User: Fold these one by one.
Assistant:
Number 1:
Amino acid sequence: MQETLRIAVQKSGRLYEGSMKLLKECGVEVSNGNNQLRVQAANFPLEVYFLRDDDIPEYVQDAVADIGFVGENVLVESGKQTDIVEKLGFGKCRLSIAVPKNGNIADIQSLNGKRIATSYPGILRSFLQQNQISASIHEISGSVEIAPRIGLADAICDLVSSGSTLFTNELKEIETILYSEAVMISHQQLSSGKRLILESLLFRIRSVKKAKNNKYVLLNAPNEKLKDIFALLPGIKSPTVLPLAASGWSSVHSVISEDDFWSRIESLKAAGAEGILIIPIEKMIA
Ligand code: PRT
Ligand code: ZN
């Protein structure tokens, strides 16, 4: 009998949509009707457990689930032993120390003797130790950003993504402790059957991620400009070149990465490319 890989994902919250979307893009069909705790994928040997994110590292460590999608921040804070298999590219945020905008704390050294409110006492404690700062940590589970205003703390250590929560609460970041995104974690000793399923899922995840980081580009150019244009299209073995009906012109097809997308398009235009079309790629198989 074929084995099934058990994956833990967040039941609801900021990582739920990204997790389900990624599975879907990998061709794994999961229906989560009726708010079920466990659902078997229809077309892949995967069983999905819907849990609170804080419980995911422990479940994977203890082999209640084989793998999980969870924020790196939650994993590090939990101190649980699992392997990080892959960064997933969603749920990006940072754990930062922030202080009142108009207060007198300007750098981390000024935190000595101060009170810091956080939901991440473990990560904060080791940061303070490493930097030899002696401050008291007030652990609170939510609405950390209001702590300075109500006199509970002098500073906070909380997750930031857009920065609008800090802005609204008249706080400013003075230090980032951890950059985080959703990661795939795995139990440290999977059976060989489960490892094979994991490899197959991972292959699909990497193909989806690679496709997102690249775009298919089509352009027209006069033949005498092709050499300059090829020089601007690195990273692939060779572009496809087709003659156009208009003599002396060619159509060039290639793949360019998202990283320096706009500057590369501008360079292509400057080099003589015309009629540039950019097309998203759905999957990219290495
Ligand atoms: O119920 P459960 O325990 O599963 O969920 P939860 O309420 O603990 O977590 P949830 O759903 O809020 O967040 C899940 C994960 O999303 C976090 O562990 C992070 O890995 C990731 N993530 C990404 C974030 C943010 N961005 C984020 N901005 N988690 C929380 N925030 C909060 C932050 O705490 C602050 O209150 O959003 C506010 C700041 O956002 P900005 O955009 O105003 O800067
Ligand atoms: Zn949580």
Number 2:
Amino acid sequence: MKFFVDTADIDAIAELNDLGMVDGVTTNPSLILKSGRNILEVTKEICALVSGPVSAEVVATEADDMIAEGRKLAKIADNIAVKVPLTWAGLKACKTLTDEGSMVNVTLCFSANQALLAAKAGASFISPFVGRLDDVNIDGMELISDIRTIYDNYAFDTEILVASIRTVNHITDAALIGADVITAPPGVLKKLADHPLTDKGLEGFMADWAKTGQNIL
Ligand code: E4P
């Protein structure tokens, strides 16, 4: 399973990238706002840092304008994935940009039928938002499971990119279902290593090691 980082924070991306944990990056208008950076500048820096796909989102609502924005974003670097919303205009932009050779990530997916449309429009990635579904008492992971089944039934190439991840359990569940990619905030990715028994075990080993009076170096 690939790990994408869901942020436009260069320092946070660089820290995880140094650990070999970054297969790609996703951004959105809210994350660009949070970064306080210019979208074109920060996206270019991220693309230079990370070799995998970097999603940059269009903000137009009409297909022709989305296509124009997508073409401009795609020129930033070869590893740009143009992000478009799951509307008919977004699907039209997806088809056009995909036909032109760009990677496209179709975002704001909340149903299996929407995911089916994105695959038929040639999307490289579909981004179902599990956390936002959980927020309204709908099981986000059930959607991931349904999309996995549908894509496998028809051998669609579109990768399932599980988005709106809030907890480490979302990542475990996505991996068990066989999602292709997860995108998570840096804080959630860092929590993957945490376990109280690891901390307790290490504490015990360190205490006993001190009693040996030995050094390795
Ligand atoms: C990723 O592509 C999405 O933009 C992101 O995961 C949304 O997460 P949120 O629901 O926490 O805003």
